[in-house]
Amino acid sequence: MTAIISAVNVTKRYGEVLGLNGFSAEIGPGITALVGPNGAGKSTLFRLLIGQLRPDGGSLTVLDRPAWGSVGAHREIGYCPEGPAVYDWMTGWEFVVYLLRLDGFARAEAERRALDAVQTVGLGTAAHRRMHGYSKGMRQRVKIAQALAHGPRLLLLDEPLNGLDPVGRVELQGLFTRLAGSGHHLLVSSHVLYELERMTEQVVMITNGRVVAEGNLHRLRAALDAHPQSITLRTPDPRRLAHLLAPWPHVTSLEFSGEDVLVVRTRSPDAFYQALPELVTREHLAVRGMSSPDDDLETVFRFLAG
Amino acid sequence: MSLHPPRYSLAPPTLRPHASRVQVVFWATVRERLGAMNIVLLAFIFTVVLLQIIIPFYFATLVPGLANGPELSFFYLPFASQVWFFFVVLLTASVGAGVIANDLATRSITMYLARPITHLDYLVAKAAAVAVWITIAVVAPTLLGTTIVLALGYVPLPLALQAAGAFLGVGILTIVAFTGLAVLVSSAAPKSAYAAAAIFGLLAGAEIVAFVAWTISGEPAVLYLSVEQDVLATAQAAFHVPGGVLDPTGAAAILIALGAVTFYLAWRRLATIDAVAE
Q1: What is the rounded CA–CA span in Å between residue B48 and residue B25?
Q2: H or E element: which one contains B195?
Q3: Closest partner residue to B274 among A40, A47, A153, by Cβ?
Q4: Of B258, B235, B268, which is closest to residue B72 (Cα–Cα)?
Q5: Nearest residue of A to residue B2 by CA position?
């Protein structure tokens, strides 16, 4: 795998506080999800990658160049920061033009690209209104537009879907996927975890400034084999179902949650999923719903992070 | 609706030179600061300064015994008035406070610094934008007033040129000191309102502290602490006004040093702007 981003033992301190603590990861082409709780070091990593911060230790390269001090490399990176980060007194289109001109584009070219970018993120005619009246989702789209507009190879998107409505999220997820298909590389952070699962299987999990896991999400899931998982069953008679499941050797606990919900914890979800239909059929049970809150990225992260 | 990637290619375009990118930040900042309050303050400053320059020369024409005509020291009146200085400080606080603090508060600075510009480029552009506003307040009305009294025939051309040079010299020292202080405070404050209060407090507070310390101790050297007193000392020398208690060279050096040191500290501060929790 050709590493787009390579971090070896990167450390960043804010006085006594460690922003990154020996962060090491190889991030390859396509879309990579960066997952971690607030304060894990995700935004610090982004700012190190754009050369805004200087690492206190270790080595960090982006597109084969050191992240710190490679001002020219910024042309190949598009960054969408977390937070408001826009000028309310400009229109969305003006803002993108302005930032493109900081990239060195002549006015006419900047205006053309900005128009293309605001259309790309679906801002429509709102792009020509002052951002003072923008919703959070519209601001988010402007930030994504400015990250895309100069045609970077690498997009660093810090919580890019934050504040978008469900339709907007799906639209931008699709856009990110298509951008990856057209040769861009994306590092996307989010704590809305299922959104990342829809876009990529490549994941880097970070907590307390360290990588706790990286690689293919499915392979990481395999690490859960020895970890009890929860399965929620919705049934009108949860007590009878619990009575029937209690003897199963891999079921470790049963918990009633509300009048019609039974939460089962099992050490062997595969065996559970295999055996349950047979039990339901044999005992004429009414199971109206089944879900596994553990069966998502968050659980993997929590488990791996300890 | 389905969104599609932009139509442009990944081929690198022909990019404009480095200086033009700095100019983009500069002009955007000048425009951003074009608020109603700053315009009102500027209008007030122009009115005050023009009146303080024109009126003394007008009355000088009415004095028949003024054998040698008006002197250079007549132009000193705007400096002698606390009103002008007070409003220039207000304008500096109003213009300078948000110039960096707003970018830090909204984190838009991260988008600047993700571009091919350096911390120093950014700071130079921001400082230049502040300096333009302070120049308009400090130099423009004095030069306009000098031009008017020249046009009205109140002063001869050599005297007007001498006065313009003096206004320019003192003005530059003032601009350097005020701009450096403004960008430093703006880069250090979490909100522009705090920065405005700090700029005003530092400039006005230093004047009060210096004056009280001088009154108590009788030691004139403490007046160097006051930016206003430093400006006045250089202005007294420039306009040949007798009676100054401070050495004008020392005062000028302090103003330049204040501008240079505060600018340097602002630059150092920008290099560590991310000393905040996520």
Answers
A1: 32
A2: helix B192-217
A3: A47
A4: B235
A5: A171
Contact assessment for residue B141 and residue B41, using Cβ atoms and an 8 Å cutoff: no
What is the rounded CA–CA span in Å between residue B225 and residue B122? 30
Q: Which domain-ending residue is among A197, A222, A247?
A: A222
- Residue A250 within any structural domain of the chain: yes
Mutate to test the interface with A, among B18, B22, B24 (most CBs of A within 10 A): B24
Token code pair at residue B256: 């330049």
Instruction: Give pLDDT tens digits for B58-68.
Output: 887 777 666 56
Give the SS3 label for residue A266: strand
Q: Is the ipTM of this complex over 0.90?
A: no
Please check whether residues A175 and A273 belong to one and the same domain.
no
Residue A51 touches partner B, C-beta closer than 8 Å: yes
The reply to whether A33 and A57 lie within a common domain is: yes
Question: Quick check: pTM over 0.90?
Answer: no
pLDDT in tens, B232-276: 999 999 999 888 889 999 999 999 999 999 999 999 988 776 533
Q: What's CA A295's distance to the chain center, in Å?
A: 16
Q: Which chain A residues touch B16 with a CB distance below 8 Å?
A: 101, 104-106
Long-range contacts of B139-144, Cβ-Cβ distance < 8 Å, separation of 24 or more: B139/B167, B139/B168, B139/B171, B139/B172, B139/B175, B140/B46, B141/B45, B141/B46, B141/B48, B141/B49, B141/B50, B142/B49, B142/B53, B142/B75, B142/B78, B142/B167, B142/B171, B143/B167, B143/B168, B144/B46, B144/B50
Q: How far apart are CA B47 and CA B41, in angstroms?
A: 10
C-beta neighbour count of A252 within 10 angstroms: 13
Q: Do residues A11 and A68 lie in contact, with contact meaning Cβ atoms separated by under 8 Å?
A: no
Dig out the tokens for A197 from the structure.
């699962």
Question: Could you tell me if A180 and A272 lie in one domain?
Answer: no
* Phi/psi at A75 (5° precision): -65, -20
Alpha-carbon gap, residue B121 to B133, rounded angstroms: 19
- CATH number, domain at A250? 3.30.70.920
Helix/strand number for chain A, H first, E second:
10, 14
Decide if B27 contacts B128 (C-beta within 8 A).
no
> B-chain residues within 8 Å CB-CB of A151?
6, 8-10
Boundary residue ending a domain (A193, A222, A251): A222
Q: Which amino acid is at A109?
A: E
> Has residue A74 been placed in a domain?
yes
| A201 Cβ under 8 Å from any chain B Cβ | no
Domain that holds residue A246: 227-292
